[in-house]
Amino acid sequence: MEDGMKTQLVSAIQLQEVELHHKQKKGPEQSFTVEEAVETIGFGRFHVLLFVIMGSSNVVEAMEIMLLAVVSPEIRCEWRLEDWQVALVSTMVFLGFMLCGVLSGYVADRYGRWTVVFGGFAWSAYFSLLTSFAPSYGWFIFLRSMVGCGVAGVSQGFVLKTEFIPAKYRASLLPLATIFWMLGSMLIIILGMLVVPTLGWRWMIRLSVAPSVILLFLFKFIPESARYNVSAGNYAAAVRTLEKIARMNGAALPPGRLVESVVTERGSWRLLLNPPFRATSLLLWYSWFVASFAYYGSVLSSSELLEKNLLCVTDAGRDHDVKHLHLDGRCYCIAFAMNDYQTLLISCLGEVALIPINICLLNVIGRRRSLTVLQLVSAGLFMMLNICSTMFGFTVLLFLLRSLVSMNFNVVYIYTAEVYPTVARSLGLGFCTSFSRIGGMIAPFIAQVLMSQSVVLALGPFAIACLVCAAGSFLLPIETKGRPLLQNS
Predict the structure, then answer these.
(1) How much is the pLDDT for 9?
(2) 34: closest CA among 225, 319, 221, 250?
(3) Distance CA 270, CA 347 (A)
């Protein structure tokens, strides 16, 4: 009996030694993270598709925002509006954007980016179409505020796009999104040129809804963010998405299995104000405020200066000398002339003209210093609009100003998407876009109301805000150039 027990004991020891030797020979189990998978897959066909479809969301957003500049003279005429009432239209759009910005960010972090972006498309298209049937000014501003709420959801597409792009390509690809914004701005201006004089502003809005409807069908080709799926614990969906991208790009996933920690606290505002991100969040909120304030200030100021002929132009024609006075003040009906549409079109081209410089700045001096430089130069150009010049000179200044404020907006988008972790990226962007819309709400009252009293007083606040923001950007504590996207804090 004892001999049998000894034999069994020796056999068990030998079996353990064999298993131990096998494990040592096999080595530790291989694994990879989403960041490693995205970098290994690299850039390919999927990213071209992603760039085109998600970039087209910028077309929709730009059309809805630029529509305000084109339609303002028409509704002023139809409903006999005062300056402050015209300005209130833009303010209500940005109010809807502000209120829904944080909400859309929270929902995107909790329940996914794809759902929020798709819902934003459908919502903004529906209420934009309803706007064209508005029977009164009150209904018009209410429906436009609902459009702003939908556009807040569409803006989360930038996060969805960023989370799929490898780190070394972000500084080159993300600035190119400005091309789609320019196309949207130009499309609504061309619609204004062709449709408003013949069919009226209502048909212009109806036709402008078409891109949103098309995108609703194309959006099925874009998957949910793998980074979001991992943070939510849905590893199977993340792996399926990464495998699909790898097949489209003709690449393979890293060996092993996907490993990432599951985070229970997603979409919490506390993460934005934790010590690692507190200073960054506070400075970013002001940077976003100024980015929107300066951008829409430049758009609406140019529209107002052209509409009311307030420019100091040395080679003014007969039409420019007419200051459009009515019996007891400003004329209600001052429609855009064809050359006014052409000037707006040329200024839109400025949004993409300096993209190579923007890409160079991002890759050479980084995100923080790029913001500082762009804001300083924008401040100078705002004040230069007060200088008497030829119409060509004004067009060049407006062209450069639109280039710089657009570049600044693009860089602050990129920095925000890169600096926050996946568990709070959409919420961080949502908070930032909400603060930016406060700037958008204030800009119309300066660009469209104060402009009638004094061009210098109207342009001064934009220049001062850019100067102060340049100092804040210089003090940002985190540089994201070349840094991988964080999964959690």
Answers:
(1) 42
(2) 225
(3) 41
